[in-house]
Amino acid sequence: MIYTIDAAGLCEAFTSAANKLVNNKNILNDLNVFPVPDGDTGSNMSMTVSAAVSEIMGREFKTVGEVMNTIAGASLRGARGNSGVILSQLFRGMSKRLKECELADANDIAEAFREGVATAYRAVMKPVEGTMLSVSRDGAEGGMAYIAEDNEIIALVKAVAKEAQKSLDRTPEILPQLKAAGVVDSGGQGIVYLLEGFLTYLETGEIIERADGEVMPAPVAAGAKISDADIKFAYCTEFIIEKNSPNASSNLFASNIQKKGDSMVVVDDESIIKVHIHTNNPGYVIEEALKLGALINIKIDNMKYQHNSLTENAPAAAEPQEPPKPYGFAAVAAGEGMETLFRDMGADEIILGGQTMNPSTDDILSAVNKINASTVFILPNNKNIIMAAEQVVSLTEKNIYVIPTTSIPEGLSAMLAFSPDAAGEDNAEAMKEAASFVKTGNVTFAVRDFDLNGETMPKGKIIGLTGKKITAAGDDPAQVAKDLLAGMVDDDSAVINVFYGEDVDDETAEGLQTYLEETYSACDVLVHSGKQPLYYYIVSVE
Prior knowledge:
four-stranded antiparallel beta sheet, Rossmann fold, Serine Threonine Protein Phosphatase 5, Tetratricopeptide repeat, Alpha-Beta Plaits
């Protein structure tokens, strides 16, 4: 029986949980409820937990609070896709509950699960039942019910896992798409895998090994040569606050300074608060801390200076930097032609990604930090990337507007609506409105059998989708594109855009353009070489 877990034990249990998920990521990817090649839940969740494991492996922590804080921070920065962001928010909520714990008992863990669920639900604008959210919630409620009877950790996690599994089994009854496909929710299955991996370590003391071929991102070795440009927050700031009052809470302080840096640890006890943070504004952090009490043991190190000393390079003279421009743009796109289109329209940074290739929050943040602008507009151009983009807002001092574009045509239309003379908020609204007028369709191939108008169609069939709905199918991508557009164009349509992918030759695309110009003579027909993967054609109607 286990009644408490320490920092080292939590690190190993989390690693075991992460490895269980990573080893089964292909199963999660295969749990698709739509016949399109977007089965990336397993990949997204795997990369999110792997980012956390790579941050804790080989390090020593004094408290479970420090471990959980590190996991929460690393998973947020490594979060990919909606499933990864939701997972990072689960860890963030758990970190809040455990931050003051040196050891964690069953009650601490049960309440941490519950706080994690609450934080994850708050992060999602429109929570959907029958997903990883409800599986996590039902598991947490099972843990709280167990705590009312006993307080042994293994039995607690078993109770959580049991209720999570029951909830997972119910997901097809909640979401018709799951029932029709004969699958359970992929994100919920990922939660169950994490719980099973955690439980395996508790019961055996052994970490589940990562399967052959599954690579863990390597932590930076001591003394490794890193460019000081990779140090986003230059000042390692540490001190102790001697509280003015035993009742003084560090919650507001931690919340205020969190947006000013990373690697934050705020450990609170009855008389002092231990603070560690990497920041570019140590003065701000100190001013906030003084509101709680006197400061002692203050240490502020310039990590870029230390880096230059360690690598025996004299600090180079700083190159003069131009004043920041008012506005900048970061857009997510895949395909040489797509990248060119966005750059021609003024995008400063292109983040490689899209369907099946969701960039992480840190990838998006890195692109934002490269842009010499005080205000940056982010165009995710995919529904599954919007949540990861929104997390950037709290990680930078720049003014960020995330335009919730769900396709490349929406992103391009949004950029056309930008006015350099308008205020940031006005531009954001205009860009959102422009994107809302765009109807987007995709021509790709089915990765599983599907039904269309009551007829069963085989895997591999060419399909045309409007949103997630299949509206056309056939054997020729160009013909499917014609059929797809026939259902999209109406009397109000003025412009048809066609972006052809890397598997379509120029001659075929020109033939499609001729057909569309003759068929829809009242519309302007624009055909572009997007060279995008996965999709033969991306089409839009405005």
